[in-house]
Amino acid sequence: MNKELTRKQHLDLYYYMRLTRAVEDTMTKLFRQNKIVGGLYSSLGQEAVSVATAYALEKKDWLAPMVRNIGALLVKGVPPRDVFMQHMAKYDSPTKGKDGTSHFGDLDNLHIVSPISMLGDLIPVMTGVAMGGRYLGQKIVTMTWIGDGGSSTGVFHEGLNFAAVQKAPFVLILENNLWAYSTPVKRQVPLQNLADRAKAYGISNYIVDGNDAVAVYSVAKEAVDRARAGDGPILIEAKTFRRLGHAQHDPAEYVPKEMRAYWEARDPILLYEKFLAAEKLLDAKGKKEIDDKIDALLATEREFAENSPMPPPAFADTGVYCTGDDCHKIRPNWVRPISEVTPPRSSVAPVWTVEGFGQGKSSSSGNAPIHFGDTPATEEATRDAQPLPRVPPKAGAKKLAKAAGAASKSAAGRKVRR
Amino acid sequence: MTMSATQTAPTAVTFLEAIRQAMFEEMERDPAVVLLGEDVGVYGGAFKTSEGLLERFGWERVIDTPISESAIIGAACGMSYVGLRPICEMQFIDFIVCAFNQITNFVAKGHYLWNAPAPMVIRGPSGGGVHGGPFHSANPEMYFVHTPGLKVIYPSTPYDAKGLLKSAVRDNNPVLFFEHKFLYRRIKEELPTGDYTVPIGKAVVRREGRHLTILSYAAMMHTSLEAADALAKEGIEAEVIDLRTLLPLDEETILRSVKKTNKCLVVHEDTRTGGIAGEIAAILCEKAFGDLDGPLLRVTSLDTPVPYAPTLEEAFLPNAQKVFTAAKELARY
Amino acid sequence: MAVDIVMPQMGESIFEGTITKWLKKPGDKVERDEPLFEISTDKVDAEIPSPSAGVLKEIKIGEGQTVPIQTVVGVIDAAGSAAAAPAPAKPAAPVVAPPPPPAAAPLPKPATVPAPAAAPAAAAPAASKDGGRIHSSPLVRRMAKEHGIDLSAMSGTGAGGRISKQDIEAVISGASQPAAPAAPSMPPPAAAPGVSGSQAHVALESAVPREKMYFGHYEVQPMSVMRQRIAEHMVASKRVSAHVYSVDEIDMTKVATLRAKSKDEFEKRYETKLTFMPFFVKAAVAGLRAYPTLNASLDGTNVVLHKEINIGIAVALDWGLIVPVVKNADEKNLLGIQRNLNDLAERARSKKLKPEEVQEGTFSITNPGVFGGLFGLPVISQPNVGILGLGAIEKRPVVVEDAIAIRSMCYVTLSYDHRVVDGAIAHQFLHKVKETLENWSEAAL
Known about the structure:
Strand content of chain B: 15-25%
Number of domains of chain B: 2
CATH topology of the largest domain in chain A: Rossmann fold
Strand order of the largest sheet of chain A: 1-2-3-7-6
Number of strands of chain B: 14
CATH architecture of the largest domain in chain A: 3-Layer(aba) Sandwich
Distance between the termini of chain A: 81 Å
Shape of chain B: globular
Radius of gyration of chain A: 28 Å
Order of helices and strands of chain A: HHEHHHEHEEEHHEHEHHHHH
Strand content of chain A: 5-15%
Helix content of chain A: 40-55%
Radius of gyration of chain B: 20 Å
Number of domains of chain A: 2
CATH architecture of the largest domain in chain B: 3-Layer(aba) Sandwich
Strand order of the largest sheet of chain B: 3-2-4-5-7-6-12
Number of strands of chain A: 7
Number of helices of chain B: 12
CATH topology of the largest domain in chain B: Rossmann fold
Largest interface: A-B, 59 and 54 residues
Oligomer: heterotrimer
Structural class of chain B: alpha/beta
Distance between the termini of chain B: 51 Å
């Protein structure tokens, strides 16, 4: 499971994790200076999950962050100034102030889909992106995140079920940070491991230590590769912990002190620094360089963001509809010839395989069919199933044999009588 | 009935067939157009509106989905982000509210918030009068007329159905397209050969008159015309306008007519409270108050769920007699 | 450069914060983002970093004080350094609303019945069956305004008798004179709003607080438009004109005898009833000819002496009062006047009067005596300066040539506007009227 990372890759992961934390730190200050309005969310302690999973994607792949996946946005290429300006509702922000936090996207270049506040809705949407990309021949993988809390929504089920039945190239990272606002995970779900839900959809799943950046990356990379190869959607449960409250206003006093202390000692950046030092990949000088680089970057980014104006009031009444020039140009990027998606190449005739016919356990004594299908069972499902019986010969053939036998019998009979 | 070519047959076609032709021709014209829905592929759709499409376009473009309205709409939204133009079918439009969150929060707001228009069509059979009961007779248009970012279409003739569905597919905004199931096989019309579209957001005068204006749409449009004929026998000339698009509403055509006749009656099968008649009355008060020579009346369904028994449903729905009575009262005011 | 330090909003539903501790004092140097003070809110306590580098100049809100969010709690004198402190961003968060002002004491409502409409707004058309309302529609009102037509004088053929588009269109196409008075040579006095026909809309006010009217059992009847107009007109007339009253007594015996003798034949011949009114009209005409000041209007300080003599006759209706006008009464003979009167009265009662028939009166006559009563003190119908009120004609003992005789007597009152008409003229006018009636020649019939 542990894929080999190059030194550059290690340092990239470390850099992005540090950058994530620094960006969120800066935003906390901005929030307390009343420059960020509304709410502010933090992914303190979960940086490895966002950064290492997003790092496994290719440039052409799509992702959709939730509010605690700023790290993924930074890895995808979003400059920190955009993150600041989004939160500060500035006119130069990606949404020009019309939405805040991580609610922004970029269809054309970075391939980021904006989330909405309702949890789980990204799952069918990213399934659709995956299906659409496949249709166009693009061989993309799509990725999004969901929390332990968000996995309780109905649309989580609908979306993942649909992705599974369509074998969409989609990777879902389930960040189990043990708290959904003030609800501990044991009040949220009746499972020890949320990854067990994958079984309900017949899809592969992984469980990984979310604070171990290298492990997260390895698992994510494998999942992305498999999805791209056509294995269908994959669920990764990353075990981690939400170190701060639900948002800035929440001091999270409901979290037991011992729990907090345990996870603070397992801070992902701290762990990674120890690992990098042990592997001699990063020394004090290198660390200082990274510190300075981040400080300098954020100083300019922050300045730019603070100096950007607020959107003018008249702007509120614009942009409800896409009317020609003022909106994103909708152009599908065909990577395979169109003839491949039209019949006869892409036709379907009803298929009536009767695998398992007559072999299923049922309440009646007779043989009951367990599965009429046209899709081969997935690897996981067949591992535990009975060995497939031979397809019984066609009923018609049997009849013929009988008749022939009967005829010969009577012929013999007649012969005997004469 | 399978389509062999893209040209329409010269004989009159039903409302349903016009819709099927529209989808067929759009999918022929543009490979980015795909269709998703329950039973749309192998079965050809619960009402056979997509019969023959799977055979022609293949399983990658005509997708049979699980019973998951949120997933259908959400996936279509995602597909539209990579440049496809999906058509989603709700098996009965009543089930569209199972995807209410996806439609109102993802699909409708995308362009305004983050410059991500969703060029998709959500269509399905709506309306009552077919003994469908409370969950198969819905007219949910106003939930969506109340959602900025969407467009809502509700045609009444085969010509309009085909032309408007084509416009909807080609529109870069999300469009809800309601097909009144009562009209599916009951009305026929000869359609022109070749490609044509009907513009979204434009009403049309179906019958000219000078004594009062009747605004209507979908099945009630035909009811209104029936009533207008009866009114004409009494010397009352009603001008009947088919709204066709509910959002954006064609205020210009409505105002022009009411300035001429000075009296307005709105007929809709939607329930009374919150129906578009209230919206139109407000617009007329704002913009044509000095032209009103009579109160703004409306004939609508009752404020109840759609009842099942035919006698109850008849009491629930508007009909030509109710429209006639109201129009006559208004004309004589 | 001064930089404000504000109380931040720590959550969407948080509207105030308490300063628990200042970590710096005025005069201290601070770096940007250095912790500056600590706050406590409903949800969370926090350490607030400084928005800028510089020197803490002033603390405005001290420890322990609670203030709304966005409040400026202190000021920093920012260093003019390279890392220029940006101007404090105008907070975009919704400013916390001040507590709503105490609701204005609502007008006490009557116990059971809905409050009557106080303002004389034009009533919305309501198809009322009681025949008491005049209603039209926004379209008709607009057209009436554009063409200067007085709707209160019109009749309608629409539902419930309302004035419909067809009705007003008919009037517009048939109308001769514009209803509005000719442009005055002087602008009307600014103080008194012009009481000018249908444009007068003086608010009807109560002399006592409204609630004093509602006690015990009662029934509320909203006023019809006509009633409101009458009310407005009366009040305005009393306010504008200096009403003075002169009373005289007229011996109507000669007229009464003549009338009694001729009325049957008159009716048969001319197919119209003969009443006392035309006699009074002719007498009034005589008086007005002699004393034209009473046939005038007052515009500011200009007296407008009318050349035509158009006598308005008050007609009592079931639902109100209207004053149709006998035009050019001086050019008509008794028959002409009588016919005109009967026709106007009948059409007044059936609501078929045309607008011009209630306009351009120069003097008025009212007949309260027909309902009994000695005499009345009528209100002048603006913009006239005089109105003649007729009492009942009844037999009374009077002194004639030093003997008591029974004569048909009638009290008449002249209400006149003392701004224009003095007592001398008024009395002389009355005398002329009296003289005309008491010496009525048979030939004049």
